[in-house]
Structure formats: C-alpha cells, structure tokens
Write a structure and sequence with these properties.
The complex is a heterodimer of chains A (about 110) and B (about 110). In chain A, strands 2, 4, 5, 9, 10 and 11 form a six-stranded mixed beta sheet that branches. With about 110 residues, chain A is mainly beta. Chain A contains no helices and eleven strands. In chain A, strand 6 and strand 7 form a beta hairpin. Chain B is mainly β. Chain B has no helices and eleven strands. Chain B has strands at about 5, 10-15, 20-25, 30-40, 40-50, 55, 65-70, 75-80, 90-95, 100-105, 105-110. In chain B, the strands form two sheets. In chain B, strands 2, 4, 5, 6, 9, 10 and 11 form a seven-stranded mixed beta sheet that branches. In chain B, strands 1-3-8-7 form a four-stranded antiparallel beta sheet, with no helix packed on it. In chain B, strand 4 (about 30-40) and strand 5 (about 40-50) form a beta hairpin. The chains are: A mainly beta (about 110), B mainly beta (about 110). The interface of A and B includes residues 43 and 101 of A.
C-alpha cells in the first residue's frame, strides 16, 4: 500500500465550478498535510498546509482534514483555466517535520 | 532572494558517465532535500541534510548515488556511473520552518 494515495486523474472541471481533489494516507500518526501545485515542466509550489481537523480557507482554496478517516482534500472554488495543473498531496509524520512523503498527484484540467 | 538555484537545468549524458547536480539553497534555510521525480514513481526523497549534516539517506537508490553539503550555501548530488534508469527530474528543496518546502527549478537528467 502506498503511503499517500491520490487519484491520478485527469479530473476535468468546467470553468467557474468547484474542483475537489482527494488524498488518503496510511500512517495514522501523520500530523501535517500539504498541497502543492505543479504546472507542466515546472517545480512544485506550496498552496497551503493544514494540521488540525476541519477546514482551512485561503482565498479560493479550502483544505479539509479528517484524521479519523485519514483523508485530506483540497477544494478550488470558481475554478479558472490557470488552475489547470497537477496537484500533489504531501504528508509529514509530525508537526513542523521536514520530511514529506508525496502522493503521485492528480492532474486537473479546467475547461473554459 | 533568488530562491533555490539548481544547475544545470538540463543534462544529457551517456551511460557510464559521472553526473553532478548542484544546488544553492535559500540563505537561512537549514534543511535541504534532494528529490527525484518520474512519471512512474512520482516524487521520491533521496536524502536530506540539516545544518549541512546528512540526516536520512535511506532513499538513495544505490551506492552509485552520493550527496554532499560542504557548506550552508551549496550541495551536490553525484551519480557515478550513470544508467538510463536514472533519467528523471531531480529537485532540490529547502525549508526552515517545517511548514512547506521551496523547490528549485529542477535538473532534467537524460542518460542515453
């Protein structure tokens, strides 16, 4: 079993709709969770992190964490074509820990 | 700040040759990571340093790979001898807070 699992996609969403990206992890002791965005041919860039159960909002992005279900998600509201990218979920064993384990990523396409 | 700087951006080499990848971290970031990204395996952590000291090299695939960080402003990843299966994008990333990495632009390595 992979430590961090994501649906590879592609996930296709119409412009203006909500894109929902999901991630599950196997280590129940995981404490910190990150979402990165990676455009084709570019390096990953951090979108947001979350470490408490519940929702965390930043602009059009909302991260949701459910530790009991070992599940973390990213919602993108009012999706724009510029949101088309691969989204990587990453998990760390403890808060503030530096070693991240990444999922394979979900490729998201926003259709105008 | 110029961010994390990697060189070269692209490297094409013949099987059996030595390859050296370079990374200049963000000043003040005391953690440095080397990752490898392929379509099949995603982002894999190879090794990471804290204050120039290697902390975890369990991801280094075999003895052909070695990494050094002689000072806070420079790190190298060396592959000797290189093989076609080493073809990948190699990322250097740095961190200071534990709340998400900053990645370099990567080195695309092709071994023919």
């Amino acid at each position: 079993q992979k430590e961090v699992e994501q649906n590879s996609g592609p996930l296709s969403v119409p412009e203006g709709a909500i894109a929902s990206l999901n991630c599950t992890y196997s280590d129940r002791g995981s404490q910190s969770f990150f979402w990165y965005r990676q455009y084709s041919g570019k390096s990953p860039e951090l979108i947001m992190f979350i470490y408490s159960n519940g929702d965390k909002e930043d602009g059009r992005f909302t991260a949701q964490l459910n530790k009991a279900s070992q599940y973390v998600s990213l919602l993108i509201r009012d999706s724009q074509p510029s949101d088309s990218a691969t989204y990587l979920c990453a998990v760390a064993a403890i808060q503030g820990a530096q070693k991240l384990v990444f999922g394979q990523g979900t490729r998201l396409t926003i259709n105008p | 700040d110029a961010g994390v700087i990697q060189s070269p951006r692209h490297e094409v080499t013949e099987m059996g040759q030595e390859v050296t990848l370079r990374c200049k971290p963000i000043s003040g970031h005391d953690y440095l990571f080397w990752y490898r990204q392929t379509m099949m395996r995603g982002l894999e952590l190879l090794i990471y340093f804290n204050n120039n000291v290697p902390i975890d090299d369990s991801g280094m695939p075999e003895d052909r790979f070695s990494a050094k960080m002689p000072n806070a402003s420079f790190s190298t990843l060396k592959i000797q001898p290189s093989e076609p299966r080493d073809s990948a994008v190699y990322f250097c990333a740095t961190d200071s807070t534990g709340w998400g990495y900053t990645f370099g632009s990567g080195t695309r390595l092709t071994v023919v």
